[in-house]
Amino acid sequence: MRVFRMLAVVTVLLSPVVAHADEALVEFETLRGIPVAGVAIRNIAGGGLPWAIQRGEAKLEEDGTLKVEVEGLVLAAGPAAGTNPVAQFIATLSCQNADGTINNMSTAPVPASSAGDARIRERLTLPEVCLGPMVFVQGFPNLRWFAVSGF
User: Fold this and answer.
1) Model pLDDT for residues 96-109, shown as the tens digit of each residue
2) Structurally, how many domains does the chain consist of?
3) pTM flag (> 0.90)
4) Which of 18, 35, 84, 90 could form a disulfide with 116 if both were Cys (CB 3.0 to 4.6 A apart)?
5) What CATH number does the domain containing 42 carry?
């Protein structure tokens, strides 16, 4: 009986830790493809053609883990429209610092399918302050953005 009580107490004490282990600091339920070629946002150059996306979402967890999932991130114009010609994507978390400067933190590249599907998951070192967080999906190695959090 004593062991059972100890286990019950430990379970109750650890429950809040487990429940909050992957709490989101911020979630983006939609990502938007670059509507006009070359648009730069937060010091990140835009792709050379418009891009479209079927579905995209991003989540930044309290421990700094950035999770991004895209489906159907493809060219919206040009002879290769409807396809993704880029073999790898990265994700960038962009923060405005308290002094107004921009802090862009990127993940390592991950494979992207020709249909424009990719999953990115990496822990980033977060700054103390992150005003107006944004998440970008960029091509690698050219680093131009193709999709960004927004609607």
Assistant:
1) 999 999 999 999 99
2) 1
3) no
4) 84
5) 2.60.40
